[in-house]
Amino acid sequence: DYLCQGVDKVIERRREVTELGRTETNQSRQKKLKDELYICEIVEEMYNRGIEFVPIDINTSDAVRFKIVEKGKILPPLDTIDSISSGIATSITDARKDGPFGNREDLMVRSGIGKAAVKTLADYGLLDDLPESSQMDIFSLLGN
């Protein structure tokens, strides 16, 4: 999420993660925080070198690999989103090979992902262009 919001957001998140790491006692959580801190440092360095991240896109992001979309611009993979595992991300990209998703219901059926994953994607703004289902309501017909 913060990857695509500029160096200031990355620095802010790095500070948050550092502070959380000082008080965390759970070893598993400590490792995750340490890994995230490492990512923050790398991303901050990339921004400082003029490399930017473009927003994650449900239609073009890879499941697990970062993609160079043009000189100095990188597209993060779907699995960089909190709660979207590499398995979920791969299910989405595999289903996408059969054509674009018509709606959120289509995304769920073709990819086999659950409502929680769809909600996460929607919360990140990745599904803003996808209606809930293929059913039309009266207001859509009237153009309102």
What distinguishing features does this structure have?
single chain; 144 residues; mainly alpha; 6 helices; 3 strands; 50% helix; globular
Task: Characterize the structure shown.
The protein is mainly alpha-helical and 144 residues long. It folds into 2 domains: 1-53; 58-68 and 79-131. It has helices at residues 7-23, 27-48, 86-96, 104-111, 115-123, 138-142; strands at residues 52-53, 67-70, 73-75. Strands 1-3-2 form a 3-stranded mixed sheet, with no helix packed on it. Helix 1 runs antiparallel to helix 2 (27-48). The longest helix is centred in the first third of the chain and has 22 residues, at 27-48. The mean pLDDT is 90.
Task: Summarize the structure in short.
Helices cover 50% and strands 6% of the residues.
